[in-house]
Amino acid sequence: MYRTETDFLGEKSVPAAAYYGIHTVRALENFAVSRQTVHPELIRAIATVKQAAAETNMHLGLLDSRVGSAIFQAAGEIAEGRFADQFPLDALQGGAGTSTNMNVNEVIANRACELLGSSKGDYAVVHPLDQVNLSQSTNDVYPTALRVAAIRLLQGLAEACAQLQGALQKKEAEFAGVLKLGRTEMQDAVPVTLGQEFAAWAEAIARDRWRLYKVEERLREVNLGGTAVGTGLNAERKYVFGVVERLRSLTGIGLARDENMIDTTQNADVFVEVSGLLKACATTLIKISNDLRILSSGPRGGFGEIRLPDLQAGSSIMPGKVNPVMPELLAQVAYQTIARDLAITLAAQGGQLELNAFLPLVAANLLPAMEELTGAMKLFAERCVSGIEANSERCRFHLENSVALVTALAPLIGYDRAASLAKQALQTDSSVKKSLLDSGLFTAEELDTLLRPEALTRPGMVKRPTAAKPKEAAHE
Fold first, then answer.
1. Domain span holding position 179
2. Given 69, 315, 392, 431, which residue is catalytic?
3. Which of 11, 126, 170, 447 could make a disulfide contact with 112, Cβ separation 3.0–4.6 Å?
4. Is residue 316 flagged as an active site residue?
């Protein structure tokens, strides 16, 4: 069953049960590309904008209260997640988001018609453009809604950062006493504790969390009321000043009208800034993922200094193999985030003059990036970090068999002599401690004191426990 709707281009058949209308049907025909539909958070945010507009228009006497109330109720239902199947448009679309705005207008109008006792398509009762879109343009509705959607997802992302930071800090405390070999450029380096490594990762996540928290301030400035190009044409002056206040009340977000709405209408640099911070977070996550995979490699043929939780069988041919699937998932989401950042950057610089036509591409990458990072970090914290165990014996074995320990004694015996002893240990396949004892420079008791863990993992130089002078080698 179909109904016939008309626009200035002609007629189209619309499914009789559909809440959308002719503008959506045309967009469905034109933009069937990616199978990725418009992000539901953006739809929710646009519906909330429509609520704010309806309230403001009614308050100013521009919209009949009976019609306005039906519009407000219909938009509120959409903002709550109802009628999700009525927003089938491809996320990638021409027209700067006009098709998505039209889609929302039509669903609101047809639902409002139902609420007023009429039938879908009876636009004489509620018109999607003359009434639902009153005092608005896609060019102020869509950017404003994108900011609202981004803020909502950003808040969830910041919470995921906090959860991951907390999980890492718990491991920092748990592994504070696990002394291990540090590594630089994949070569043996001076000792650290396993807890210190987790502390560094936690601190990096804390920085990402703070940056994401602060960027919300820029997203709060919106151009709602600016209509087509930011000048506010076809919007009453009182509407321009009142609609953002209504939206602020509906969302609970500290939104503010941008003093220069032309700027906000044509420039999308704030989304590049947000995306850049997502990319920064992604690079941190990739670093952590790589480190955990290296430290847990093996279990026999690799580092094996930590154990990740066993989550699933890792091979269809090698029995008993378990893969580091959660770090791998995290890295893949992070790689995708970095790739999305490029698309957002290109879209933001691609606008011309008074409008950026490529905001749908921004939305299609920014919102999923936030959602994916949020989900990946939560899973990573819950299913990986919280279950990590230290292999203290393996950590101690690598440390004691490394020549890097001699670094701590270089201030006492000199760089060249320390290097010579390190080389000797490598050539004879013995420990540095043995080479030091054979040299006669230190007693076993002195070495036990000098190479104690607390002396090796904090600032300062080791000092001899007694005032005795070092023994001279026989040839000297």
1. 140-219+262-392
2. 315
3. 126
4. no
